[in-house]
Specification:
Helices cover 16% and strands 39% of the residues. The two termini are 16 Å apart. The longest helix is centred in the first third of the chain and has 11 residues. It has an eight-stranded antiparallel β-sheet with strand order 1-6-8-7-3-4-2-5, with helices on one face. It has a single domain, classed as Regulatory factor, effector binding domain (Multidrug-efflux Transporter 1 Regulator Bmrr, Chain A, Alpha-Beta Barrel). It is an alpha+beta fold.
Length: 135
């Protein structure tokens, strides 16, 4: 695992899945229909426990200046600047469950922020960087 640093806060815009994991395909389809891949956009997934045995999951996009600020069902979320524990997963679609296994390993680290969240940063259509904020 590596340490990654975000020098500045990053504002992203999210859609919330109706359920996890069943609602993920729908939420990403809706996100990509509104903001298709390309044009300098970066995609994220954010999750945290809901306190009831399930996860809250948000699919998100960092928009470009040309995109403007979305309205409607999109809600802003700020990824806080700072250091994150991270690991890249290459060709994640061959083993999607590797994302969950990676986060399960990462949240065992004593250095993570107990009030944080799991952050997926999609580097390209095949590779994802799993990140958890350090305290």
């Amino acid at each position: 695992m590596n340490i990654y640093t975000f020098e500045n806060d990053i504002t992203i815009y999210c859609l919330t899945a109706t359920s996890f994991p069943d609602g993920l395909a729908d939420i990403y389809n809706r996100l990509h229909a509104t903001y298709p891949p390309g044009n300098g956009r970066t995609y994220f997934g954010i999750s945290w426990p809901d306190g009831k045995g399930s996860l809250v999951y948000k699919a998100a996009v960092k928009l470009t200046e040309a995109d403007g600020i979305p309205g409607g069902e999109f809600s802003p979320f700020v990824i806080k600047k700072g250091e994150y524990l991270g690991k890249d997963i290459h060709n994640f679609m061959a083993d999607v469950e590797s994302i969950g296994r990676t986060f399960q390993q990462m949240i065992q680290d004593d250095r993570i922020d107990p009030n944080g969240y799991c952050l997926e940063m999609y580097l390209n259509p095949n590779d994802v960087r799993c990140l958890v904020k350090l305290a």
